[in-house]
């Protein structure tokens, strides 16, 4: 980060919103966000590895506090899936929902860590000047997750209804089977299918990204003087506590929308 004499609000925000990128090959059109990929993979390994260790040491006797916590989370998500998903593939959807919830929650939770302290650690400990620590503030992450769910939804549509049945649904619902209505039905379904991954991804991205911006603004306020430091610290602590609810709620909403979309793929209009 620039020194204090060079630091401006613009440079401060730009520093924290700049990704560590690399080109796949020289002259390539697209680049990889290294910080997003590495952080996402590490958090996925840590979170799922933690659950695996707890399950491995699980006992049928008196459970430990850690085992009780994991069992509570698994049972809660399983019940939510049972209440929402009415297909015959609960054995796949429930574990998928648990994986999505835990992974997205872990990625969201990185937004609670002090942004300036994390930037200092990444720069002085690892020599990385730019490193965005919150993967879900990268729209590529949220859109990739949503697109994966969208592809699963298409797969189950074809698998459950057959290719002919799904095509019939596209052209004959919701307005009827009259051939004159086919273009209207197809347009309506096209808009529905396109809007699902867009709304699914942008809802998560928008909420977490907005939270990050608020933390940056509070950090800038804290640098304006003694009064700014006091009010910035108090408001920052309050926003961090409130943000715990936001990151958890957004992970839950993303998971529930996934279950709803997969459930819709198993239903016929």
TrEMBL record:
SUPFAM superfamilies found in the cross-reference section: F1F0 ATP synthase subunit A (SSF81336)
InterPro entries (UniProt xref): ATP_syn_F0_a_bact/chloroplast (IPR045082), ATP_synth_F0_asu (IPR000568), ATP_synth_F0_asu_AS (IPR023011), F0_ATP_A_sf (IPR035908)
GO molecular function: proton-transporting ATP synthase activity, rotational mechanism
Mode of membrane association: Multi-pass membrane protein
Domain of life from the UniProt record: Bacteria
Function: Key component of the proton channel; it plays a direct role in the translocation of protons across the membrane.
The protein's name: ATP synthase subunit a
Gene name, Swiss-Prot/TrEMBL: atpB
